[in-house]
UniProtKB/TrEMBL annotation:
Family stated for the protein in its record: Belongs to the peptidase S33 family.
InterPro entries: AB_hydrolase_fold, Pept_S33_TAP-like_C, Serine_prot/Carboxylest_S33
Region Disordered: start-end pairs: 31-51
Native organism: Streptomyces litchfieldiae
Alphabetized UniProt keyword annotations: Hydrolase, Signal
Residues in the signal sequence: 1-24
Keyword match Signal: yes
Protein name: Alpha/beta hydrolase
UniProt-listed Gene3D superfamilies: alpha/beta hydrolase
Keyword flag Signal: yes
Length: 549
């Protein structure tokens, strides 16, 4: 189905490109009760003791015992725990994996169950200084926490050393947690090679419609029983079962990108269980898909304009020394690709299509440190007629291993979760009414992103039983929001709206990072890192309005 840009914070190539920088900020800390967010002392055990009863769930779920076993650290593309030789952390701590059993349908807790794949690294702190578990969601929807945590763990080592077990999971429908299955790898290659990102004729529109119908039918055939139940609301319920089984009185949580939406939904459902929480790269909570997608288009265009301005100061910039004209250069490249995809060095002889090039450009905007790779890719494409580097960037973004041709289930999971939350989709005539708005918001991305509004058209069901809700004015602890002014995927204005949706500055203070990229904490900015670490390790919260960078 048509894909707009997902709110994925970490993915293999760009995650390893994140560099560090040092800036200063002024912060006023507000003390919080010393016990806030602390667990019950079970952190670090090889096997988590059986939990007590959980209201509304059968004992085999509510009182289950997590049996942790050493496991190899998977890659984010694998998206699943793998057995074999463990890949230890710097101090020799092995990664441990375990399954968590949850109901498929919380309205029928005695019915069918699924297993949620977990991974953790126990804290290296002395037992008497341990805080408990810190649960991560790195973005998506559709991103694998089991795959991402090991690749990103170095960025969070100070939190582990300070007293947290680092824990993540594949959300329901993702990776090893009953992962949604639609097309196979060969079919996905064909889908990406043939789908027209900017259909110009009735025949091209009809071909796209047929391809989307085939995609949806495959999802229903292989995963139909699970599709209605992979909502963000149900994943938030899964997180509370995880909190309970881990033995923590409150959920300590670090959510990034889509993970901020998940964290806000959790706070709405379980306000009394909110512990030390950080939501970084905050999504826009509005239910109007057109308004949210327009903001996203503006965000990616802003980041692209910053790249073009920087590139214009460099020798041999492929888009030229005029940043404004750079948009025309890129639009011309994409138009040319619509007519004639570029050859690549791909072993499967795939060519670079218009849609893949657009995805590649967007992918490289997630971090300022990846701009150089965009420059390489654009130089190859514009000067040499070679789409290899741009295809590689697109592959990493959508979860395709270029070495094996295997896909993670990130794409189908993303579609399934978004459509479970909001299965309404716009018809082509309806979305085309907004095309001019999108092209005005972004001459490069607008036409591509408006097509994402039709993504759930034809989905097997048309209404979500529980759309996400975010208001949590009575949360037991403040949720620290962190937003970046130059964020392409979750623009800054969305964080301001989420603050209001949750309940205002008292319950959701906002820390601003004046910089570029998606996820402020992993930018390496000292001010942001110190403020977030103080929130999680010491229980202090920066004053609303604090600015770093």
């Amino acid at each position: 189905m048509t894909r707009a840009f997902s709110r994925i914070s970490h993915f293999p190539l760009l995650a390893v490109l994140l560099a560090t920088a040092a800036t200063a900020c002024t912060t006023t800390s507000l003390p919080i009760g010393v016990e806030e967010g602390r667990g019950n002392g079970t952190a670090g055990a090889d096997d988590t003791p059986a939990a007590g009863p959980y209201e509304g769930l059968p004992d085999e779920i509510g009182q289950q015992r997590l049996e942790w076993a050493d496991c190899g650290a998977p890659t984010a593309l694998q998206g699943a725990a793998v057995t074999g030789e463990p890949r230890d952390l710097p101090d020799g701590t092995p990664w441990q994996c375990a399954p968590l059993t949850v109901p498929v349908d919380y309205a029928d807790p005695e019915g069918a169950t699924i297993e949620i794949a977990l991974i953790r690294a126990v804290s290296s702190a002395p037992e008497d200084t341990r805080v408990g578990s810190l649960v991560f969601n790195f973005g998506g929807p559709g991103g694998s926490g089991v795959g991402t945590l090991p690749s990103a763990a170095a960025e969070y080592e100070e939190l582990r050393a300070g007293g947290f077990d680092l824990v993540s999971f594949d959300p329901r429908g993702v990776g090893e947690s009953a992962g949604i299955v639609c097309l196979d790898d060969a079919e996905l290659d064909e889908y990406d090679q043939t789908l027209d990102s900017s259909p110009d004729t009735p025949e091209e529109e009809a071909a796209n419609e047929a391809a989307n119908e085939e995609y949806i039918a495959a999802c229903e055939e292989h995963s139909g029983e699970l599709l209605p139940h992979v909502t963000t609301t149900n994943t938030a319920r899964d997180m509370d079962v995880l909190r309970h089984v881990l033995g923590d009185e409150r959920l300590n949580y670090f959510g990034i990108s889509y993970g901020t939406e998940l964290g806000a939904v959790y706070a709405h459902l379980f306000p009394g269980k909110v512990g030390r929480t950080v939501l970084d790269a905050v999504v826009d909570p509005r239910s109007d898909p057109v308004a949210v997608a327009l903001l996203d288009a503006e965000g990616f265009q802003l980041a692209l304009d910053h790249y073009l301005a920087d590139c214009a100061t460099q020798p041999d910039c492929p888009t030229g020394d005029d940043p404004a004209a750079g948009n025309d250069v890129l639009s011309g490249l994409l138009d040319d690709l619509d007519d004639a995809p570029l050859p690549t060095r791909d072993p499967d002889r795939r060519r670079l299509t218009q849609g893949q090039a657009t995805t590649a450009i967007a992918a490289a905007l997630y971090s300022q440190d990846s701009w150089e790779y965009l420059t390489i890719g654009l130089t190859e494409a514009l000067d040499e007629g070679d789409g290899s580097t741009l295809l590689l960037l697109a592959d990493f973004y959508i979860g395709r291993d270029p070495a094996t041709g295997q896909y993670s289930n990130q794409g189908p999971a993303n579609a399934a979760i978004r459509c479970a939350d909001d299965p309404s989709g716009m018809t082509v005539p309806e979305l085309l009414e907004h095309e001019d708005e999108f092209v005005e918001a972004s001459p490069v991305f607008g036409e591509f992103m408006v097509r994402g509004l039709s993504g759930c058209t034809g989905w097997p069901f048309t209404e979500s039983p529980e759309p996400p809700a975010y208001d949590a004015p009575d949360a037991a602890a403040p949720l620290l929001l962190v937003a970046t002014t130059g964020d392409p995927a979750t623009p800054y204005a969305g964080a301001q709206r989420m603050q209001e949706a949750i309940g205002g500055a008292d319950v959701a203070p906002l820390l601003t990072y004046d910089g570029e990229g998606h996820s402020a904490y992993t930018s390496g900015d000292d001010c942001v890192v110190e403020a977030v670490n103080a929130r999680l390790l010491e229980g202090t919260v920066p004053e609303d309005g604090t600015t770093c960078g």
